[in-house]
């Protein structure tokens, strides 16, 4: 990706990951809770505000719905953003491990 973007918030990161398959807002909330063992709990206001922003950026798009719950899916541009973010996070993680010697299991 030629252009860098600011780091994604954890919420936006999980919203984009959730949308590799079509999902509605509540489905995004459920998957995010499942993936993070309930550590990240996205409220409805957060989800729908983020969805609006992600639609405007072209990172997700709506899918034709049956008139009930609108579903969304990630776009190719959104996938590029996720790939860039994963690369950024990998660098962050690897530098932390290299400098600290790795996570120590204290207990």
Automatic annotation (TrEMBL):
Transmembrane segments: none annotated. InterPro entries: Metal_resp_DNA-bind_regulator, Tscrpt_reg_PadR_N, WH-like_DNA-bd_sf, WH_DNA-bd_sf. Residues 21-81 form the Transcription regulator PadR N-terminal domain. Pfam families: PadR. It comes from the Bacteria. PANTHER family: PADR-FAMILY TRANSCRIPTIONAL REGULATOR. This is PadR family transcriptional regulator.
């Amino acid at each position: 990706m030629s252009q860098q973007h600011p780091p994604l918030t954890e919420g936006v990161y999980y919203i984009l990951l959730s949308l590799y398959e079509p999902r509605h807002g509540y489905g995004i909330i459920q998957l995010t809770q499942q993936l993070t063992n309930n550590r990240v709990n996205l409220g409805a206001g957060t989800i729908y505000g983020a969805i609006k922003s992600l639609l405007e950026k072209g990172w997700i798009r709506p899918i034709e719905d049956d008139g009930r719950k609108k579903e969304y899916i990630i776009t190719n541009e959104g996938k590029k953003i996720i790939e860039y973010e994963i690369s950024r996070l990998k660098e962050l993680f690897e530098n932390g491990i290299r400098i600290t010697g790795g996570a120590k299991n204290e207990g």
